[in-house]
Amino acid sequence: MFLIQRLEKVYKDGLAKSIGVSNFNVSQMERILKIATVPIHNLQVECYLYLPQNELVDFCKKHNILFTGYCPIGSPGRFSCTGKGVEFKHTPNPLEDALVKKLAEKYHKTPAQILIRHLLQRGLSPIPKSVNEKRIKENWDIFDFELDANDFKQLNSFKNQYRLAFWDFVKGHPEDPFKDERN
């Protein structure tokens, strides 16, 4: 909790306009909110079709914390660019999910656009990553359509199944946010 006190000092000194944390779970967020004197403005965590983080999203909405989701399309290029200390599990590719592909065809969009739009319609801030100029432009081309209620409901039916990154460098640490999910 030393970290939050340091972040609050930076905020109170006028060196930051907001405070955010990353890769915290509900339990950690609850503990922070009990001692915080400055509101937490943002939580950034992995969030995509197969890890919708519903409990964490609900917590953030209840406490007026912006929820930013990284890996919104399932990070299909992750195996070619992983750094030291990052273990990625082999998981199904949400870009190949039958429902996502069906909706992409229905809306004349790419599967990535369907996945990004879904998170946006949930009230979240998806942050897709790409180094490909064409895909970067496609990722922004999501504001000219909305998923209808039935399609949105179908995408919302997915539960937490697959975490992509387990951050090995925190394994064994008392504040490991993923300790309950590790094998």
The gyration radius over C-alpha positions equals 17 Å
Question: What gross morphology would you assign?
Answer: globular
* CATH architecture type: Alpha-Beta Barrel
Overall pLDDT, averaged?
A: 89
Could you explain how this protein is built, in words?
The longest helix is centred in the N-terminal third of the chain and has 11 residues, at 2-12. Helix 2 (26-35) links the parallel strand 1 (20-22) and strand 2. The chain has a single domain (41-170), classed as TIM Barrel (Alpha-Beta Barrel). It has helices at residues 2-12, 26-35, 54-62, 98-107, 111-121, 133-140, 149-156, and strands spanning 20-22, 42-46, 66-70, 125-127. The chain is built from seven helices and four strands; from the N terminus they run H-E-H-E-H-E-H-H-E-H-H. The protein has a four-stranded parallel β-sheet with strand order 1-2-3-4. The chain is globular. It is an alpha/beta fold and 183 residues long.
Nutshell version of this structure?
With 183 residues, the protein is an alpha/beta fold.
Task: Annotate the secondary structure layout.
Elements: H1 2-12, E1 20-22, H2 26-35, E2 42-46, H3 54-62, E3 66-70, H4 98-107, H5 111-121, E4 125-127, H6 133-140, H7 149-156
Parallel strand pairs: 1-2, 2-3, 3-4
Helix pairs in contact: 4-5
Keywords for this entry:
183 residues, TIM Barrel, 4 strands, oxidoreductase activity, NAD(P)_OxRdtase_dom_sf, NADP_OxRdtase_dom, Aldo_ket_red domain-containing protein
